[in-house]
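Q: Start with the shorter request: fold the first protein.
A: Done. Sequence, then structure:
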Amino acid sequence: MPVYDLHCHSTHSDGSLSVSELLHRACEQEVDVLAITDHDCVDGLPEANSLIAQESLPIKLINGVEISCRWHSFEIHIVGLNIDPEEGQLKALLNEQQQRRYDRFDAMLEKLYQRGVSLSAEDCQADGMPTRKHIADAMVRKGTVSKPQQAFDRYIGKGSSAYVKPEWCNIPEAIDAIHSAGGKAVLAHPHGYKMSNKWLRKLLVEGKEWGLDAMEVSLCQQSPGHRDALAKMSREYGLLASQGSDFHYPGNWRELGKNLCLPADCVPIWEHWSQ
C-alpha cells in the first residue's frame, strides 16, 4: 500500500531542509506521495515539481499549503491539499498572510530590542516565511538562551514579554481560498491546540458548516488510542481523513512517513482528490 505523508515543511517556511533535501529524504523513507505544506507559502512547489521531473524521483507530489487562521483565542492551521498554487484568490490571501507575517516578525524584533536583545532579520536567517522558530534559533546562536524552548518560555511564547498577537485570516476565508484553488481543506493536528474536547467539537461543527473537507487523523507522534479517537471524530462529523508527519527536521520524534496509517473505517482524503 502506498505511503502518504500529506504535511511537511521546507526552508520556505520553518523547516530545516531545502526542497531538494526534503524530497530526497522522503524517497529514502520510502514515502510514495508527499505534500509540501509550508506556512502561508507555495514558493517551494515549482522547484519540487521540477526536481521530481528532472531527476525522475520515485515520488508523487501533492501541491499543498498550511494557512494560519484565527478562531476565538486560538491559532488554527488549515492545510490545503491538491491546490492550484497559481489560482488568484489563493495567491491574494497568501500575499496578505505573508505581509502579516513580516509585520509581526518586525514587531517582535522591536520588542526584543526594547528588552535588551538585539537581533536583525539577517541574524534570524529566514530564507522563506519568517516565523518565531527563526527568532528562537537566532537567540540560541547569539547565546541569549541555551535552547529554542527557552526563547519561547521567556520572550516570544504567548503571554511572554516580546510576544505579538498574530492577525491571521479567519477559517472561512482560508477554506474558501483553498476551494477556489481546487483543493481540499484539512484541519491540521486537531489535538495540537491545547483546547478541551468541547472546544474541539465546536471547531469541527463550525468548520463543517464553513466547508471543511477533512481532518488529520494519523500523525507520526501519536498513540493508537489517540489516532482512534480522531478517527471516531472524523466519522462522527462526516469528514475525510488525512495523515501527515508535520515534519520540520530530521529526528526520531517526527519523521517523514513514520507510523502513518489510517484506521480501516476512515475515508482517506486521497480517494476524493477530484471531487
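Q: Next, the second protein, separately.
A: Sequence, then structure:
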Amino acid sequence: MKQALKAIQKISFWVVVLALLAYSIFPIYWMVVTSFRSTATITSDSGLWPQDPTFENFLGLNRLFNYSEQYMNSLIVATSVTVITMLICTLVAYAIARRNFKGRKTLTIALLFSYMFPPLLTLIPLYVYMVKAGLGDTLIALIIVELTVTMPLGIWMLWGFFKSMPFQLEEAAMIDGCSRLGAFVRIMLPLAKPGMITVAIFSFLISWNGYLAPTVMIESDSNKTLQMGLTAVSANMTSQWGLLMAACTMIVAPLVVGFLLLNRYFIQGLAGAGVKG
C-alpha cells in the first residue's frame, strides 16, 4: 500500500512538473516555430515544425521598420547599464558590508526607501533634469534613468552576498601579505562571481525589456529602442504573424542564450543573496 502511494505521489509530481514546463516553454517554442513559417502557410501549417522553413520573416523586419538600428540601440543601452551596474554595485555593496563609515546606516535606509516609489514616479523629474543638462533625447539619458532602477537592486543583492562571506578569508589573505585591495580582487571577487552574474542578468533583463523609460526619454527615430519600434508597428502587423513572431524571437534570443549559459551562477547568486541579506 505504501509503495503504491509513493508511486502515485511520484507520478503526480512529474505530471505537475511536465505540465508547468509545457505551460512555460511551449508558447516560446511556438513563437520560434511560427517565425520560420511563411505568411501563406501560417494558418494552414499546424505541425510542431514548419514544413518549409524560411528566413523571409527575419529578412523582412528591416523593411517594416528600422529594426537593425533599434536593435543596436537596445543592445548599447542594456550592455552599458549592465557593466556600470556591476562595477558600481560591487564596490558599494562591498563597502557597506565590510566597512564602517559615516553615513553607512543612512545609505542603507536610502536603498530601502528607493523601493517604496515606483519608477514611474521619478521618470518625469528625471526627464526634466536630463533636458536641462542637455541630454534630452539621448541614449546617455536613457542609460542614466535605467541605472536608477538597476543599481539599488544590485547593491541590495550584492550586499547580502558579501555579508554571507566570512571575514576570516580577507584577514588570512592580508596576514599573508595581501593588501585590502589585493584581498578584494583575489579573494572576494571570485567568491562573489555568482552574485555579480545574477545582478548582471537582472540588469540586462530590466534595461533590455524597458519600454516606459524609453518612451518618456526618447523622441527621435534614430534613438528609439527595439521595444519602442516593435510597439509602434505592432498595430499594423495584426495579419503578419510571421514578422511579429520573428521580431519577438530576436528580442527573446539574447535573454534565453544568456540564461542557458549562466543559469548555474544565477541560481547560486539568488541563493547567496538571500542567505543573510
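Q: Describe the second briefly.
A: Residues 66-228+252-273 form a domain with the MetI-like fold fold (CATH 1.10.3720.10). The mean pLDDT is 80.
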